[in-house]
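Action item from last meeting closed. Structure (80 res):
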């Protein structure tokens, strides 16, 4: 995969994982505990799978992108 496309795939995967992760505190705050306990593990698992299954594939082929993403998160708290 060309680096330009890999960067796009990684950004989309990163955003998707982050968006899913953001659901957990929202559900905890606005749903009964029983619903939170049902949804939180599934959401967490999906977010982790994106990181493991998609981002690691991209980063294994393009280690420079991993460094770029890590530096962005360290500096800005997000991927630019």
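Sequence:
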């Amino acid at each position: 995969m060309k680096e330009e496309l890999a960067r796009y795939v990684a950004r989309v995967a990163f955003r998707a994982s982050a968006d899913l992760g953001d659901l957990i505190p929202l559900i905890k705050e606005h749903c009964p505990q029983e619903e939170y306990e049902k949804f939180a593990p599934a959401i967490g698992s999906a977010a982790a799978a994106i990181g493991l299954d998609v981002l690691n594939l991209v980063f294994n082929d393009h280690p420079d992108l991993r460094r770029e993403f890590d530096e962005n998160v360290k500096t800005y708290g997000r991927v630019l």
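Note appended to the action item: Residues 3-76 form one domain.
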